[in-house]
Each structure stands twice: as structure tokens, then as C-alpha cells.
């Protein structure tokens, strides 16, 4: 086992993990150290300092088994405040170390330390961690591999090896400067200069011939790719030349096998898929590019690449085969792929969809505009400022975290009256919508859920300002995606078509452009839990809100006490 650990650490340092025989063990406690620090990195012909964990980009991978506990000592030796979120970890009864800034904690200040407890429960597959303060997650992120418990196996044939594939985004300028500028001007942020695969842009970018991730495979063997979309502002298409992919999991859970020529993956989402090395030995490109459904929105139209190279003696083709990717604006390709996912729904991995719903919610997710400061003009539509909202409320970040205020009964930090429905009903997806509907209201409000209530939440995309996809992420829970469609949700007809048999279990779901998604979950995890769009510019504009799930009556249904080293506000 000691040699195996050394092998894992060495491969992790090199940026590639081929996992071939990890010994499963009983649930136990794992301790790791994260040192947040500035580190110089060179890409696209220039060098800059970026915020990293342990000097690595992407950051270190965490390895655990189902039901394990991971203790991570986070030391902030950087030059800015930081928080770390464990994306896809439900953290039963333990919202204190979930990580979102001013929702469940105040930030870890430079020079400070916070020991974060990660309580794994039913997660199995690939999840991840990332910064959850400002735009730091552009470079502060990494994978979490959760293996099956001892005595259990994958619900598919054991792969020869396992490979992390982290899709990312790179700006030549400082990302915090990008954030500051677009918030000041009220316009869209500057687009990135490159997309990345495992921290490398690929040989189609300037000065990047050597900066290409390469994976050597043996003919006839099958590989498990563990993919994470850590990009800031883009759903991405991905494919491998002349190779099909078979999806077997998403967001820390298993799916029925889905074979496809490509995939679409939202920011925040993870997808596990099998690739069989069954082609003639050669070098084959894998590639990713942005999907952009809004013609008025600027986006990075570059393509990142990596290479699968078969082992053996042969002369590679020139040029290497390149995959076909859907068009950048192919909404059907994106939505149909996501809509084809199904839960495994087996004896060992059953589906538990709530059938009797006690709480029905209808949330519009919109791009809005707000007036600029007096005597100034902004770069948004009609010289106004971009904003974003849920049910027409643009989230206003408090200066003390909501969890502490709720737990200690501190008044004046937030309101309890987040609405169940939008304030005005109209044709949400009409081609033209009255300008006066663009205005949103700034507020800090939460929706309170009773413990063990069963929730159906319909996300309705709108065509306010610009219709666009919204990958919505819920902290503290996974949810069943029971339905989706284009246009306005029809409360009489659409529920008749819900999938209540094997809907996918996810924590991030893309609401399609001018469409809707229906999710269900049981509110059995007490605490304060953020919900937001995972397009970073949209959360910066205010497309977020929080749920408070009340304590149950049993002692095991109540929020755990806060740790003693919570960062001060």
C-alpha cells in the first residue's frame, strides 16, 4: 500500500493519474494540507502569478472511498481572501465547511488557517473542489475521486486505468482584474484567451506546442475518464477523434451506459465515461470548445486539444485525426445530450424520487439590467448595467455569513421571504418582452424549507435581455431531473411527461436557452445551502439565492455545532 501511495503522489505531481488497482478499505479519516499561494505559470507566450493550492495547477486530487471523512487544513498564504467549496459533497448536517463566501462562512484571510471537514455520504464517482470567493476558482480547483466501499465494485467492467480530465479556462491577464473591470463598467467580462485540458491549452495555441496533455493507451484496453468542467463561463462540447464515449456517471453518481460521439458538460458538472482503445494505433486528438446559445454574447471561440497516443512502434498520421464537434450554437446537441442521461436505477443503486410533493416552487432565472450610478453610463444594454436574478431578485451579498446569522439569531442580515413564484407572470420566452420587465430588485433573501419536506422546483429560463443557458447548482443536495423542455413550462401538460422511473441524479443542471427544467429532492439535510448559476459572470451579477432547511426533531436531524476555528468576519 505504501508503494501505491507513493505512485499516486508522483503521478499527481506530474498532472496525470492512471489508477490501476486501488485497494478499497473501510471508511476512515483522511487528512490533507492545502496551502493557497501565488505561483508563477507560463502559458500562451507570457508568465503571470496565479493563485494555486500547493503550487499546482490544476490543484491536487483528493482520493477517498464512499462514507469516508476528509480533513483538509487550508492555509492561506496568498494575497487575497479565499474560501474552498467541496462541490458535490452533501456535507450531512455540516454546512459550516461547505465553503461559499458570506453564505456559510466568512473568508479565510491572508495568513490565516481553517480546518475543513468533508463528510462524504452517498457520493460515488467524481466530484471536485474549488474556490468560492470572487473569481479565484479559475485557478484554485481540483478533483475528488470517490471509490466504492470495500466489498463493492463499479457497476461496469473494471477499467484498465482511470484518467482525470479537467477542462479549464485561461486569461493572459489577471482574472481578478477581469472581474473588477466588468463589475465597474457594468458590461460583459473580457473573454478568456484559451481553454485548457488538464492545465494545458494544446498545440493549436501560440507558444503551446509543448503545452499539450498526452495520454498513452494500449490497444484493446478500456479507460475511465473522470471529467470536470472547471471553466468559468462556458458549457463545453468534447469529443475524441474516431472514438466513441460511454457515459457511466455524472455528479458523483452512476448512470445507465450512454454511448455517444460527443458530450456536452456544464461548468460545475462532472461526467465519468469509458473509452475503448479499439482503433488503429495512431495519435488522435481530443478537443473541447464552447457552446454559446446567445448570439449577442461574446465568447472564447478557440479550441483546446489533447492527444491520445497508442503505445507501440508505428508512424503517426500527419496531421493527426481530429474529432467532429457540434456547432458552437447547436442548442439541440447540448440539451439532447444532457436530456439523455438516466440514473442506473439498479438494486445496488436504487432511485428514490419523491412522489408526493409538499412544496412546489417556480423560479425564473433571468438576465436583467439596472440603472448606472448618477451621471454615468454603463456598457450594458441601453447604457445600463447588467444584472441577473432568480424570481427577479438580484442577490445582494451580506457582510456576515447567513449561516452564522441564522444559527446565532442575528437579525438584519437576511430576509426569510424569498418568493415561491416570480412577481409577474408573462410570456417568459417571447421574442420581445417589455423593457420594464428587465428591472430586478436587489435583496438578500432565503427560502425556508421544513425538514423532510419534498420539493419540486421548476427553473424557467427567460428571454429578458438575452435568452441563454443557465447551469444551476444546488449545494448540500443532489436532485432528480424529472423533466425539461423548451418554451414556457405548462403546469398542466408537462408534469404528465415527467420521468419518475430513472431520472438522472445531479447537483448541476443546465436550464436550456428559453426553456425549463424540473427537479425534485427531499429536504433532509438541515443547514443553509446556496443555489446559483455556475456561469461565473451570472453569479457575479446576482443569480443566486439560499435555502434554509430547518432542523428535524431527532438529534441526528439537527445542524452540527460550528467548528472552533471558523474564520472571523
UniProtKB/TrEMBL annotation:
GO molecular function: hydroquinone:oxygen oxidoreductase activity; metal ion binding
Domain Plastocyanin-like: 36-150, 162-313, 422-552
GO CC aspect terms: apoplast
Keywords: Apoplast, Copper, Glycoprotein, Lignin degradation, Metal-binding, Oxidoreductase, Repeat, Secreted, Signal
Main localization of the protein described in the UniProt heading: secreted
InterPro entries: Cu-oxidase-like_N, Cu-oxidase_2nd, Cu-oxidase_C, Cu-oxidase_fam, Cu_oxidase_CS, Cu_oxidase_Cu_BS, Cupredoxin, CuRO_1_LCC
GO biological process, any: lignin catabolic process
Protein name per UniProt: Laccase
Organism: Ilex paraguariensis (yerba mate)
Taxonomic lineage from the root: Eukaryota, Viridiplantae, Streptophyta, Embryophyta, Tracheophyta
Amino acid at each position: 500500500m505504501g508503494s501505491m501511495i507513493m505512485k499516486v503522489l508522483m503521478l499527481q505531481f506530474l498532472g496525470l493519474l492512471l489508477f490501476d488497482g486501488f485497494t478499497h478499505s473501510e471508511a476512515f479519516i483522511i487528512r490533507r494540507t492545502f496551502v493557497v499561494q501565488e505561483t508563477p505559470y507560463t502559458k500562451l507566450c507570457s508568465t503571470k502569478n496565479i493563485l494555486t493550492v500547493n503550487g499546482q495547477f490544476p490543484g491536487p486530487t483528493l482520493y477517498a472511498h464512499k462514507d469516508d471523512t476528509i480533513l483538509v487544513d487550508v492555509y492561506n498564504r496568498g494575497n487575497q481572501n479565499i474560501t474552498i467549496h467541496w462541490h458535490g459533497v452533501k456535507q450531512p448536517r455540516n454546512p459550516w465547511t461547505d465553503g461559499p463566501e458570506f453564505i456559510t462562512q466568512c473568508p479565510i484571510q491572508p495568513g490565516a488557517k481553517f480546518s475543513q471537514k468533508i463528510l462524504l455520504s452517498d457520493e460515488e464517482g467524481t466530484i471536485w473542489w474549488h474556490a468560492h470567493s470572487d473569481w479565484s476558482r479559475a485557478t484554485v480547483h481540483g478533483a475528488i475521486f470517490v471509490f466504492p466501499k470495500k466489498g463493492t465494485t463499479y457497476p461496469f467492467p473494471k477499467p484498465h486505468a482511470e484518467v482525470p480530465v479537467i477542462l479549464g479556462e485561461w486569461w493572459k491577464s489577471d482574472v481578478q482584474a477581469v472581474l473588477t473591470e466588468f463589475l465597474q463598467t457594468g458590461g460583459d467580462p473580457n473573454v478568456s484567451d484559451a481553454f485548457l485540458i488538464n492545465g494545458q491549452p494544446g498545440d493549436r495555441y501560440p507558444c503551446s506546442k509543448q503545452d499539450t496533455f498526452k495520454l498513452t493507451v494500449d490497444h484493446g484496453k478500456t479507460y475511465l475518464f473522470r471529467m470536470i468542467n472547471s471553466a468559468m463561463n462556458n458549457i463545453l462540447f468534447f469529443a475524441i477523434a474516431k472514438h466513441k464515449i460511454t457515459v457511466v456517471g455524472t455528479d458523483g453518481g452512476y448512470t445507465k451506459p450512454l454511448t455517444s460521439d460527443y458530450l456536452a458538460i456544464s461548468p460545475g458538472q462532472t461526467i465519468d465515461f469509458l473509452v475503448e482503445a479499439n482503433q488503429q494505433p495512431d495519435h488522435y486528438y481530443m478537443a473541447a470548445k464552447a457552446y454559446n446559445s446567445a448570439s449577442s454574447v461574446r465568447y472564447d471561440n478557440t479550441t483546446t486539444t489533447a492527444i491520445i497516443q497508442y503505445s507501440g512502434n508505428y508512424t503517426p498520421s500527419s496531421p493527426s485525426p481530429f474529432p467532429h464537434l457540434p456547432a458552437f450554437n447547436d442548442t439541440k446537441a447540448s440539451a439532447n445530450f444532457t436530456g439523455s442521461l438516466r440514473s442506473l436505477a439498479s438494486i445496488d443503486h436504487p432511485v428514490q424520487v419523491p412522489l408526493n410533493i409538499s412544496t412546489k416552487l417556480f423560479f425564473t432565472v433571468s438576465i436583467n439590467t439596472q440603472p448606472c450610478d448618477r451621471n454615468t453610463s454603463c456598457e450594458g444594454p441601453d447604457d445600463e448595467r447588467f444584472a441577473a436574478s432568480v424570481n427577479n431578485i438580484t442577490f445582494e451579498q451580506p457582510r456576515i455569513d447567513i449561516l452564522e446569522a441564522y444559527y446565532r439569531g442575528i437579525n438584519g442580515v437576511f430576509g426569510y421571504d424569498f418568493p415561491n413564484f416570480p412577481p409577474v407572470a408573462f410570456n417568459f420566452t417571447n421574442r420581445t418582452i417589455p423593457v420594464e420587465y428587465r428591472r430586478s430588485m436587489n435583496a438578500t433573501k432565503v427560502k425556508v424549507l421544513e425538514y423532510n419536506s419534498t420539493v419540486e422546483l421548476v427553473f424557467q429560463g427567460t428571454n429578458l435581455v438575452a435568452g441563454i443557458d443557465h447551469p444551476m447548482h444546488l449545494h448540500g443536495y443532489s436532485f432528480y431531473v424529472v423533466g425539461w423542455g423548451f418554451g414556457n413550462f405548462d403546469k398542466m401538460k408537462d408534469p404528465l411527461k415527467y420521468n419518475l422511473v430513472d431520472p438522472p441524479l445531479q447537483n448541476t443542471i443546465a436550464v436550456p436557452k428559453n426553456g425549463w427544467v424540473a427537479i425534485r429532492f427531499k429536504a433532509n439535510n438541515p443547514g443553509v445551502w446556496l443555489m446559483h448559476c455556475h456561469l461565473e459572470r451570472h453569479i457575479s451579477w446576482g443569480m443566486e439565492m439560499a435555502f434554509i432547511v430547518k432542523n428535524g426533531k431527532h438529534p441526528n436531524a439537527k445542524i452540527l455545532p460550528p467548528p472552533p476555528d471558523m474564520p472571523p468576519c
